[in-house]
Amino acid sequence: MNQARNTRQTLLLKIRDQYNDAAWEEFIAFYRPYVYRVIQNLEQIKFEDREDVIQEVILIAWKKLPDFDYQPQKGRFRSWLSVITHRTANNYYHKSKKASVFKSHLEAEELEKGLPPEIEKLCQQEWEKHVSEAAWTNISDKFEVKVLQAFQKLASGEKGEQVALELGLSRNSVYVYKKRVMAALQKEIAYLDEELR
């Protein structure tokens, strides 16, 4: 199933039904890696605790999403998910230290406060990485292996002449392939960022 082809509104409507297993699998398949990326950058969460925090974030989303009223003019869904992730991680950390400063549930006022600027920046960076990787996965089956290899080698800094020699292609072909893959990648990133944010 191509997770990128459902709009965020459609998926958010589907997962309001807590027992729609297919929708929840799709939600988890797309958003879990993003939640993990955010959590791995929060220094207070130990490596061995990350899965517990992720499960807690997903559980909170499962509980909250049936009543979630997505209003794009108020903010992005991923911002809501980022706030939940950050607050859950802090809550988990403070519970483990027996000094919880947060309430056990996330209230609307807390969610409206948003994130501290440094956490917002981290969440934005991780979102961009996550969307780029998802876009790469989505476009990879549209190109031959040599085309993708040419793009990756050029993107990693190799010279066009060297890439052409290694792959048995003309120098012009290498640059044409790079341009095609870049165009497809940028288009898919824009689509995902708009549809799944």
TrEMBL record:
GO biological process terms held by the UniProt record: DNA-templated transcription initiation
Keyword Transcription: yes
SUPFAM superfamilies: Sigma2 domain of RNA polymerase sigma factors (SSF88946)
Residue ranges of domain RNA polymerase sigma-70 region in the record: 31-97
Superkingdom to which the source organism belongs: Bacteria
Keyword Nucleotide-binding: no
Molecular function GO terms recorded: DNA binding; sigma factor activity
UniProt keywords, alphabetically: DNA-binding, Sigma factor, Transcription, Transcription regulation
InterPro entries to which the protein is assigned, alphabetical: RNA_pol_sigma-70-like, RNA_pol_sigma-70_dom, RNA_pol_sigma70_r2, RNA_pol_sigma_r2
A Pfam family matched in the record: Sigma70_r2
NCBIfam families with a match to the protein in the record: sigma70-ECF
Protein name: Probable RNA polymerase sigma factor Y
Species: Lentisphaera araneosa HTCC2155
